[in-house]
Amino acid sequence: MSGGQKQRVAIARTLATDPELILLDEPTSALDPTMVGEVQAVIRDLAGTGKTMMIVTHEMNFARSICNRVFYMDQGIILEDGTPEQVFSHPLNEQTRRFVRKLKVLELLIESREYDFAGAGTAIDLYCLRSNIPPRIKYRIHLVFEELVQQILLPVLDRTAIHAAMEYSEDQETATITFAYGGERFDPTAGENDLARTVLTRSVNEFTYNYTGDEELSNTVCAVIRP
């Protein structure tokens, strides 16, 4: 029998015992892609009978379509739970958001003006390579990082700790860089370095600034890289 047939037979044997709860642990993970739909169809039909099922799966589209409650776990810890709409469309936990949107992430911390600029560039190169980021987007990521950190932020900040988080969605081919730093309000989108701002403007689709005075890293800049 094929893998899909074996899974369906296993489900049928389980139903023969008339269980109150059915646990399905990664029911499609070991299947050939052509057989996944067969098993998912059986589970969908089973859900329509009113049987209670607990399904462990990485198939997010499948989970969203069949479940009425979703738990997201990482390292054995439940990080978020709620309706499919909440967890998949409006996740509250940062790790959940990155997982459901399949984001590749790189975080860098610049702690002084003498930080390892070359090392940061190498880290960005490796991140882009491992994330299959196209060369044109990689080039703009480097430009935005260098212009904002080297030319705009470091020359003026009294407190030089800057947290940079890069996110890339391979599905949508979109990259975003968020810079967070402390101190008084400083909006780089309205700074005096016209050349750096021109380079930034040409490299991004969107460039926003937000200030929340009650947080340690009270200034936040978000740059959506131009594809």
Would you mind describing this structure in some detail?
- There is one protein chain.
- By secondary structure, this protein is an alpha+beta fold.
- It folds into 2 domains: 3-100, P-loop containing nucleotide triphosphate hydrolases (Rossmann fold), CATH 3.40.50.300; 103-225, Histidine kinase-like ATPase, C-terminal domain (Heat Shock Protein 90).
- It has helices spanning 3-16, 33-47, 60-66, 84-89, 94-100, 117-130, 135-153, 194-203, and strands at residues 21-25, 52-56, 70-74, 77-82, 103-110, 162-169, 174-181, 204-211, 219-225.
- It has a 5-stranded antiparallel β-sheet, with helices on both faces.
- A hairpin with a 7-residue loop joins strand 8 and strand 9 (219-225).
Question: What's the quick description here?
Answer:
The protein is 41% helix and 26% strand.
Features:
single chain, alpha+beta, Rossmann fold, Heat Shock Protein 90, 2 domains, 5-stranded antiparallel beta sheet, two-stranded parallel ribbon, 8 helices, 9 strands, 26% strand
